[in-house]
Structures are given as C-alpha cells and as structure tokens.
Write a structure and sequence with these properties.
This protein is mainly alpha-helical. It has ten helices and three strands. The chain has a three-stranded antiparallel β-sheet with strand order 1-3-2. Strand 2 (71-72) and strand 3 (79-81) form a beta hairpin. Helix 4 packs antiparallel against helix 7 (157-175), helix 6 runs antiparallel to helix 7 and helix 8 (183-197) runs antiparallel to helix 9 (201-217). The longest helix has 22 residues, at 86-107. The protein is globular, with a radius of gyration of 21 Å.
C-alpha cells in the first residue's frame, strides 16, 4: 500500500489540522500535481465555497502560499498561481548547493548500514512513483531523500533550512514545463549513496553538485507576459508601402 507524503515530506496522518492549514495543503498539492497551472486565478469566494470555509480562512492559506512563492498575491487583485522564473530557481539552486555540500561533508563515512539501507529504500520509492506516473509523489520522495541526508548530519539547523528550500524547489519544479526527475536522477541518488558508503566525500560532493545542477538545467520557464503592444506585434505585421 502506497502512502502519499505530506508537502513537508512527513507522515500524512497526524493530529487534526486547522481549516486554514487544510486549505493550504489542498492548494499546495494541487499545484504540485499540476492540477493548477501557472497564472490560474484563485478567487477567495470560490475557494471558500469549495472548502466550506470563510474568506478569512482562505486568505490565511493564500498568504502562506504567497510567502513560499507558490501564489502571487497583490493588493486589490485576485490571487493567482505563481509563474516560476529562471532567476528564482537559480537562487534556490545556489542556496541548495551551499547547504547540501556541507551536509555531504558531515555525513560522508558516518552512515551505518541501516541508514544507507533507508536511503536506498527512498530511491526505490522514487522509482515506484516514476512507474505509476505520480509526478508529485516523485518530487516529494526525492525531497525526502535529500532531507534525510541533512537529518543525519547531526546539526538541527541544516534540515530546518533545507526543508524550506525543498518546499520552494518542489513548487518551482512543478510549475515549470520541464521534467526534472526521471530514471537518471534515481541512478544519481544511488551513486551518491555508494560514494557515501565508501567514505568518498569529495566524489560525493561532486555527484551532489552535478545532480542539483542537472535538475536546474532540465527546468523550462514560460516567459512573462508582455505589456508592450509594440513588442507583442514586432515582426508579425504585413509591410505596407504607403499609408491609406
């Protein structure tokens, strides 16, 4: 039996959540699963009727999503699913490279057989999601792999920082048009595990660097809509020899 990971990568079962959190998680999942496309308008009234909650509850969920970069929330305008940009993804990549390189240095040669087997199991989970065509589950399983590495570094700040970056990265990946994860990324994770098991820290750092840069290289971003009418029709109008 397969269990869907929560957006944070944890157990989907747990104590009762506040209505605002439930709305937040439902919207987050819809974006992650590409059921909501970039620029989709998110009417508070409509969402309130769908979830049977107040507009204030919806607003709190939208505000949290906006803080994470999933939603564009401008004053006096209807909220909309964000349009990811190359600059935003590049900033996430740079931050992840810094943190995860340090994680690799700390865990290299220190992972026992049980922890290594757990990481291999997370790669198997990724392959299961890949076989089922579960795009969102694949992203979350991959994130869980990276987060578990950070948790094994015995520094509580690292997984706390990385968890926030992983959530934002998951959204950027889902909202882009590229296919970031495939069988190749599963193989990259396996190679990383074997390098760590052998205590080859430098090689593991290089593998992590290549893996993260490869993810970014496969993303495809939609250009922002133009508001320049001349630019919109540049080179697409027939040439007239004279004015009528």
């Amino acid at each position: 039996m397969h269990h869907r990971l929560s957006p944070a990568g944890g157990n989907p079962q747990g104590p009762a959540r506040a209505p605002g959190h439930l709305v937040y998680e439902a919207l987050y999942s819809a974006i992650l699963e590409r059921r909501l496309a970039p620029a989709t308008r998110l009417s508070k009234d409509t969402l309130g009727r769908i979830f049977r909650v107040s507009s204030g509850t919806v607003q709190r969920a939208l505000t949290r999503l906006a803080e994470e970069g999933a939603v564009d929330l401008s004053p006096n305008q209807v909220a909309a699913v964000a349009r990811p940009t190359e600059r935003h993804a590049r900033e996430l990549l740079e931050a992840r490279l810094l943190i995860e390189a340090q994680v690799i240095r700390l865990v290299s040669g220190r992972l026992d057989a049980e922890r290594l087997d757990e990481l291999r199991g997370l790669v198997r989970c990724q392959r299961d999601c890949l076989a089922r065509g579960d795009h969102a589950g694949l992203i979350l399983a991959a994130n869980r792999f990276h987060l578990r590495l950070a948790e094994h570094a015995d520094n509580p700040w690292l997984p706390n920082f990385l968890a926030k970056l992983l959530r934002r990265a998951a959204l950027a990946i889902s909202l882009s048009r590229g296919r970031a994860y495939d069988e190749g990324t599963c193989a990259e994770h396996e190679a990383l595990i074997e390098a760590l098991a052998a205590g080859e820290g430098e090689r593991a750092c290089l593998l992590m660097d290549r893996h993260l840069n490869g993810l970014f290289a496969r993303l495809r971003f939609m250009p922002p809509p133009t508001e320049d009418l001349r630019a919109a029709f540049q080179g697409r109008l027939p040439v007239h020899r004279g004015r009528r």
